[in-house]
Design brief:
The protein is mostly helical. It has five helices and no strands. The protein is elongated and about 55 Å long.
Length: 123
């Protein structure tokens, strides 16, 4: 399935505030921020949130921006850029647990079934 992005303005605004907060904290800590930082993280958070790993925006907005680095770095490392789905069992700290766990369980089952199918075809 192709990647989806939300067009919900409240979600887009929340993501922008989250990314800006992290960017400001990193700058305050003396870390140089690449030009692509804002666009990359806005897109990755939106893709993650819109493709099976719903993020708890309220908690993220209240969190220490430096604490959010785990989620931003993990999403960057584990998001499939074609589908927006997180891979390799990464679960952001600020994921909405009830919906996300179900999606992760379905994804794990799909991976196992695909691996079994590939193994059977190779025999």
């Amino acid at each position: 399935m192709p990647i989806q992005f939300t067009t919900d303005q409240a979600t887009i605004d929340a993501i922008a505030k989250i990314v800006e907060g992290v960017k400001t904290s990193l700058r305050d800590a003396g870390i140089e921020i690449p030009i692509s930082f804002t666009a990359t993280h806005n897109m990755n958070l939106n893709a993650c949130h819109s493709n099976g790993c719903t993020l708890d925006m309220e908690r993220m907005l209240e969190a220490d921006p430096l604490d959010l680095l785990h989620d931003l770095a993990g999403i960057d490392a584990h998001i499939n850029k074609s589908t927006g789905v997180l891979q390799n069992h990464f679960l952001p700290r600020y994921a909405l647990r009830s919906k996300t766990m179900t999606m992760c369980e379905h994804e794990a089952v799909d991976r196992i079934e695909n691996a079994n199918r590939e193994r059977a075809l190779s025999l």
